[in-house]
Design goal:
Elements: E1 2-3, H1 25-35, H2 38-49, H3 53-79, H4 106-127, H5 140-145, H6 161-173, H7 193-205, H8 216-232, H9 248-263, H10 267-270, E2 278-283, H11 289-296, E3 304-307, H12 317-329, E4 333-340, H13 352-362, E5 365-369
Parallel strand pairs: 2-3, 2-4, 4-5
Antiparallel strand pairs: 1-5
Bound molecules: pyridoxal-5'-phosphate.
C-alpha cells in the first residue's frame, strides 16, 4: 500500500489522522466500491442513511430525469419493435463463427447474449437467497470425470452455442457462491453489484490502458479515481501517488523492486551481480509472496529473513532489530522490511510506528503490505491500526 523512502528521516505524522473528509455520497461510494468490498458496502450503507437534504434533492431530480429518459426509450423501442426481445432460438446449430462480426450475425449475437445475461442474473438472484447452498460440492475426480452433461475436457472441434450456454450454467452451478449471505471468508466475500456492472462494462469495452489514444476515458478515470482515493484517506496530492495493481502479490514484488532501485539504481542495467549481498526482512506471518518475490528477483529465499511474531501474530520489533544487526555483522546489507497490515491468516496488524523507527535508524526501506487491511484507512474506528503508514510517503 505504501512504500517508504529509506533515506528519509521524515517522521512527520499524518497532519490530520482522523481526517476522513466526508464529501458526497457518490464520491465516497465510488471509491468504496472500487477499493474494498465489504467495508465499502458498509460505508455506502451508512452514507445512504446520512444523505444530506441537498444530496437527497439531487438524487430525486436524477431519478426524475431517468424516468423521462426511460419514457423516451420506451417510445423509441416500440418504434423499433422491441429490439432487445428474446425470441425462441435454437442454439444447437449455431457456433461462435455465426456471431458478430460475422455477416448478419446481429440477431444471433443478441439472442445469445440475452441468454447469457439471463444465466448471470439468475445466479445473482440465487446468490442472495439464504435458502440456497453456498456450494454444490463434488470431489475433483467427479468434476473431472464429467457428470450430468458437465465436462471440462476441451474439444478439438468448435462447441455449439447451446453447449457454451450449458457450460456457463454448470460453471456457476459447481462453483462457490462467494456473495452468499452464509459465505464467510476473511479475504473475499460479497457480490458488489456496482463492481459487477463495472466488470461487464470494462469487458465490453475490451480496451487496454497503454495510452490516452486507446482508452481516453479510462486513462483519465484512473488518475481521477486514484487522486480521490488519496484524498479520502487524507493524503494530499503532493504526499502520494498511486497505481492500480492486479493484486497483493505483485504489489509486494513491485515494492521490493522499488526499494532495490532506490538504493542501487545500477541494478536496472547491470543486474544483481553489480550490487552487494542484500537481505530483506518480513514477518513469519507475512504473505508467501514476499519470499516468492525474493526468489523471482534474484535475492534468494534464504535472504528473506523471517521476524518472530508475538502470540497475536504481530512482529516483535526487538527481534527485527536483532536480526538486522546480525545480518550486518555477517556482511550483508539490510535493504527492506515489510510490515503487514492485516496478516493473511490472523488478520494481525504489525506495529508500524516501531518498525518505522527501526527502518529510520538503519536506513531501510519500509513497505506496508495492506492487501486486505488497507481498507481500514476509510474507517474512523479502525484507521488507527495503520497509524505510521503515512510516515513514509515519498
Ligand atoms: C497480506 C496479503 N498480502 C498479499 C496477498 C496476495 O494478494 P493477491 O492474491 O491479490 O495477489 C494476500 C492474499 O491473501 C494477503 O493476505
Amino acid at each position: 500500500m505504501a512504500t517508504s523512502d529509506p533515506s528519509s528521516s521524515n517522521t512527520a505524522q499524518d497532519p490530520n489522522p482522523t481526517n476522513l473528509r466526508p464529501t458526497t455520497y457518490d464520491t465516497w461510494c465510488g471509491v468504496a466500491h472500487g477499493c474494498t468490498k465489504k467495508i465499502g458496502l458498509k460505508i455506502c450503507g451508512f452514507l445512504q442513511r446520512n444523505n444530506s437534504l441537498e444530496d437527497k434533492s439531487r438524487l430525486v431530480s436524477a431519478l426524475k430525469e431517468r424516468q423521462s429518459t426511460r419514457n423516451l426509450l420506451a417510445c423509441e423501442n416500440s418504434e423499433k419493435e422491441g429490439r432487445f426481445q428474446k425470441t425462441e432460438t435454437d442454439f444447437s446449430n449455431l457456433y461462435a463463427r455465426d456471431l458478430l462480426p460475422a455477416k448478419n450475425g446481429e440477431e444471433q449475437t443478441l439472442q445469445f447474449l440475452l441468454e447469457v445475461v439471463e444465466i448471470l442474473l439468475t445466479y445473482v438472484k440465487k446468490t442472495f437467497d439464504r435458502s440456497t447452498k453456498v456450494l454444490d460440492f463434488h470431489h475433483p475426480h467427479q468434476l473431472l470425470e464429467g457428470m450430468e452433461g458437465f465436462n471440462l475436457e476441451l474439444s478439438d472441434n468448435p462447441e455449439s452455442l447451446e453447449q457454451i450456454l450449458v457450460d456457463c450454467r454448470d460453471t456457476l452451478k459447481y462453483g462457490v457462491r462467494t456473495g452468499h449471505p452464509r459465505f464467510f471468508n476473511q479475504l473475499s466475500t460479497g457480490l458488489d453489484i456496482i463492481g459487477l456492472a463495472g466488470e461487464w462494462l470494462t469487458s465490453t469495452a475490451n480496451t487496454n490502458m497503454f495510452t490516452y489514444e486507446i482508452a481516453p476515458v479510462f486513462v483519465l478515470m484512473e488518475q481521477i479515481t486514484l487522486r480521490k482515493m488519496r484524498e479520502i484517506i487524507g493524503w494530499s496530492n503532493k504526499d502520494g501517488d498511486g497505481i492500480f495493481s492486479p493484486g497483493g502479490a505483485i504489489s509486494n514484488m513491485y515494492s521490493i523492486m522499488a526499494a532495490r532501485y532506490k538504493y542501487f539504481p545500477e541494478v536496472k542495467t547491470k543486474g544483481m551481480a553489480a550490487v552487494p549481498k542484500l537481505v530483506l526482512f518480513t514477518s513469519e506471518h507475512s504473505h508467501y509472496s514476499i519470499k516468492k518475490a525474493g526468489a523471482a528477483l534474484g535475492f534468494g529465499t534464504e535472504n528473506v529473513i523471517l521476524i518472530k511474531c508475538n502470540e497475536r501474530g504481530k512482529i516483535i520489533p526487538a527481534d527485527l532489530e536483532a536480526k538486522i544487526l546480525d545480518a550486518k555483522q555477517k556482511g550483508y546489507i539490510p535493504l527492506y522490511v515489510t510490515a503487514t497490515a492485516g496478516t493473511t491468516v490472523y488478520g494481525a496488524f504489525d506495529p508500524i510506528p516501531e518498525i518505522a523507527d527501526i527502518c529510520d535508524k538503519y536506513n531501510l526501506w519500509l513497505h506496508v503490505d495492506a492487501a486486505w487491511g488497507g481498507g481500514l484507512l476509510m474507517s474512523r474506528k479502525h484507521r488507527h491500526k495503520l497509524n505510521g503508514i503515512e510516515r513514509y510517503i515519498l
